Amino acid sequence: MTESLSAADQVLDCTGLQCPLPVIKTSQAIKTIDVGQVLELLATDPGVEPDMKAWTSRTGNSLLDIRQDGEVFHVLIRRDK
Description:
Number of helices: 2
CATH superfamily: TusA-like domain
Low-confidence stretches: 1-5
CATH topology: Translation Initiation Factor IF3
């Protein structure tokens, strides 16, 4: 988990949305980027960390980093499939 936030190829803003919407929107957005590219998810739902860990392991994508800045979680996910 060493990639910087500037490594994101696309940013998905899900601030203010509660589960399961950030997961659903991430699932849709990851399909719009190329394999090897990075999606940065912005979310305020504290459940986003366990949700994204479960989602990435289930879908075969890589969870690169989860960082919290104030109320906003910055989640970096690399599309691997």
